[in-house]
């Protein structure tokens, strides 16, 4: 059976850690040497163990490779070099050749393009964030409008129910102004003869008036 896959994390056991370091260090140095021979590459490998012991491999002079590395670092990252920063500010340009000036100009254009791209990216991200907030606020407004409409409908329905209840209560409490039929009959029975006597009395003066007019004639 093959070996299980080793998790890439710190080995807690000191003994196992030292054994693993020794095996992998030898393999790493071997790979660096093979790379320099097979590909004709300048390879410099520096390793410090956890105890501070130095292990190194260099296909040529270690100092020469490190100097070359530092120079290349300054060329590709001029802002890391204080002297390059002064030159990029347009100061202390005396003694520079046309090639050096062209190189500085190219670096400035590259830096300016990088700044502009980063600025545009930030603007785009900010616009996207604002659009997202606008959409969120719009959605919240729609939900609030729906809630307000539902509340208004419930209020109208409640008012209709209350109005219908008030009308029903008002009809039941309305005083009965109609005169009962029995009361009309009783009044007729009580006051009917009296009214007839009054009518007879009212007719008598008319008879006397007629006799007086006949005697005068």
From TrEMBL:
Top-level taxon: Eukaryota
Residues in K-box domain copies: 62-154
Family annotation (CDD domains): MADS_MEF2_like
Record keywords: Coiled coil, DNA-binding, Nucleus, Transcription, Transcription regulation
Pfam families linked: K-box, SRF-TF
Name of the protein described by the UniProt record: MADS-box transcription factor 23-like protein
Gene3D superfamilies: Transcription factor, MADS-box (3.40.1810.10)
Listed GO MF terms: DNA-binding transcription factor activity; protein dimerization activity; RNA polymerase II transcription regulatory region sequence-specific DNA binding
Keyword Repeat: no
Coiled coil: 120-161
A biological process term (GO) from this entry: positive regulation of transcription by RNA polymerase II
InterPro entries tied to this protein: MADS-box/MEF2_TF (IPR050142), MEF2-like_N (IPR033896), TF_Kbox (IPR002487), TF_MADSbox (IPR002100), TF_MADSbox_sf (IPR036879)
Subcellular location: Nucleus
Any one Gene Ontology cellular component term annotated for this protein: nucleus
Domain MADS-box: 1-61
């Amino acid at each position: 059976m093959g070996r299980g896959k080793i998790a890439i994390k710190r080995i807690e056991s000191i003994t196992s850690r030292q054994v693993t370091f020794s095996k992998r260090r030898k393999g790493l140095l071997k790979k660096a040497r093979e790379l320099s021979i097979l590909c004709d590459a300048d390879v410099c490998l520096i390793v410090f163990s956890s105890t501070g012991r130095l292990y190194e491999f260099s296909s040529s002079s270690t100092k020469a490779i490190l100097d070359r590395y530092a120079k290349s670092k300054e060329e590709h990252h001029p802002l890391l070099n204080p002297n390059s920063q002064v030159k990029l500010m347009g100061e202390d340009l005396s003694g520079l050749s046309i090639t050096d000036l062209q190189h500085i100009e190219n670096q400035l254009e590259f830096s300016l393009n990088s700044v502009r791209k980063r600025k545009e990216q930030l603007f785009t991200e900010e616009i996207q964030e604002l659009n997202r907030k606008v959409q969120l606020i719009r959605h919240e407004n729609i939900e609030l409008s729906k809630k307000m409409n539902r509340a208004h409908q419930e209020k109208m329905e409640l008012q209709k129910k209350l109005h219908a209840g008030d009308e029903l209560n008002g009809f039941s409490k309305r005083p009965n102004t109609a005169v009962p039929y029995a009361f009309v009959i009783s009044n007729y029975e009580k006051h009917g003869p009296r009214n007839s006597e009054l009518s007879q009395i009212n007719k008598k003066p008319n008879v006397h008036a007629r006799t007086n007019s006949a005697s005068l004639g």
